[in-house]
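On clarity, I found the account of how folds are encoded harder to follow than it need be. What matters is that the chain and its backbone geometry are given together, residue for residue. I therefore recommend that a typical entry be quoted early in the introduction. An entry of this sort, consisting of the sequence and the corresponding backbone structure tokens, reads as follows:
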Amino acid sequence: MARVDLTVRIFAGYLVLVSAALLTIPSFLIQLFGLPTTSDVWPRIIGMLVLALALYYWDAGRRSDAGFVRATLYGRLLVFAGLVVFVVLGMSRAILLLFMLVDLAFMAWSGYELRRAGIDLALTASTPPSPMAGAQEA
């Protein structure tokens, strides 16, 4: 599991960088993807959400939470599919999909390492209970 943990910790670091950009220089990041800049607060709100996600990923890596990592594989695919739909419907530019390439690369790496560790990728697969499971019952 150490290699799986590494994949999500590195991804958490990437998310921290993205959130820092959204919080401090949102217009620059938005312009990179050919989107119109805005002075609205929404890019910074997204930056805060991305920072919260980074915390979740880091903690999952720290605790070797294979169930969480497996669920993120499906979540990342869902986000990518949603962005494809936005592009197809003309709601966004295709260049936005380039942003997802990094995410898809991390997703593939995490999936590979989960399989390598012998962990089933199906969402219905059982995973060993986390150490917190017993503490919650007490």
Q: What stands out?
A: The mean pLDDT is 88.
